[in-house]
Amino acid sequence: MKRILVIGGNGSGKTTFARLLSKKLNVPLIHLDKISRTDNWQRVDSDIFYNRLNEIFSTDSWIIDGNDIHTLPVRLKECDTVFYFDFNTVACLIGVIKRTIKYYGKHRDDVGGENNIEKFDKSKIAFF
Predict the structure, then answer these.
(1) CB-based contact 114:38 (threshold 8 Å)
(2) Residue 45 gets which letter from DSSP?
(3) Fewest Cβ atoms nearer than 10 Å: which of 6, 15, 48, 123?
(4) What is the CA radius of gyration of the chain?
(5) 3 strand-pairing partners
């Protein structure tokens, strides 16, 4: 267990679990939202994102948490362990609401882009 994916629905607890696992195993933790996002919640160019992933894959051990359906096949080929958080929609929605309240008006350390502040607006409602 040296190359680990933590995947599942938004609000399912992936990041919380990945942080604890990273500390327990002393394995570096990489958040997909940190390497895939830039300011204003925009996605980085796909070439930049894949280059970042390839840099991670070139190392011996890592934990990657997050969702990105486009890179899942590549990440699955590179990992040796997968933790899949399969919770129902209501549980995940509650997790997202709790996270939004906890970090409201703040920047989360698991998201790239310095001005990506947790907020509740039209885009969050659309997300729900």
Answers:
(1) no
(2) P
(3) 123
(4) 15
(5) 62
Q: 32: which 2 tokens?
A: 């997909």
- Identify the H or E element spanning 20: helix 14-25
Per-residue pLDDT at 15 exceeds 60: yes
Cβ-based neighbours of 16, under 8 Å, separated by 6 or more: none
CA distance 21 to 28: 10
Identity at 102, one-letter amino acid code = K
Model confidence over 45-64: pLDDT tens digits?
Answer: 999 999 999 999 999 999 99
Which two structure tokens, joined as six digits, stand for 10? 């938004």
Measured between alpha carbons, how far is residue 93 from residues 5, 103, 108, 113 in Å? 22, 15, 18, 24
CB atoms within 10 A of CB 79: 19
Helix (H, G, I), strand (E, B) or coil at 69: coil
